[in-house]
Amino acid sequence: MDLFKTFALFVATAVAEIVGCYLPYLWLKQGRTAWLLVPACASLALFAWLLTLHPTAAGRIYAAYGGVYIGVAILWLWAVDRITPTTSDWVGAAVCLAGVAIIMGGSRSAG
To answer: With bands split at pLDDT 50, 70 and 90, how would you rate the model's confidence at 107?
Structure first.
């Protein structure tokens, strides 16, 4: 799987995970309808399925995914919650994404 497709899959996986957790938050913390649990469950099922599409569902892939998740979560904060991320939010996300690049671009030889 090429680098762009892997990164796009990471982003889709992160969005599915965030939606699956955000909807129960709306129900529990903001008094929204419990019917939000239906799409939340569907989103978390999609998240689990998307994880199976990653080239290797093991430590290295999950570590790289974690960095992308952080970046997507900061974008979610901005786009959905309408909270402007701080400079430290952006710097932290950039550091995480730099870590993703290092992990994904690194050597694959066994050590």
So the answer is: low
DSSP letter string, 71-83: HHHHHHHHHTS--
Whats the size of the chain, residue-wise?
111
Measured distance CA(28)–CA(77) in Å, rounded: 18
65 neighbors 47 (Cβ within 8 angstroms): no
Question: How far is residue 29 CA from its own chain's centroid?
Answer: 22
Would 7 be classed as within a structural domain? yes
What pTM was computed for the model? 0.85
Minimal CA–CA distance to 22: which of 7, 9, 8, 41? 41
Determine, yes or no, domain membership for 80.
yes
Residue 74 token pair: 């900061």
Question: What type of residue is 71?
Answer: G
Task: Round the CA-based radius of gyration of the chain to a whole number and report it.
Answer: 16
Judge whether 111 lies within some domain. no
Number of domains in the chain: 1
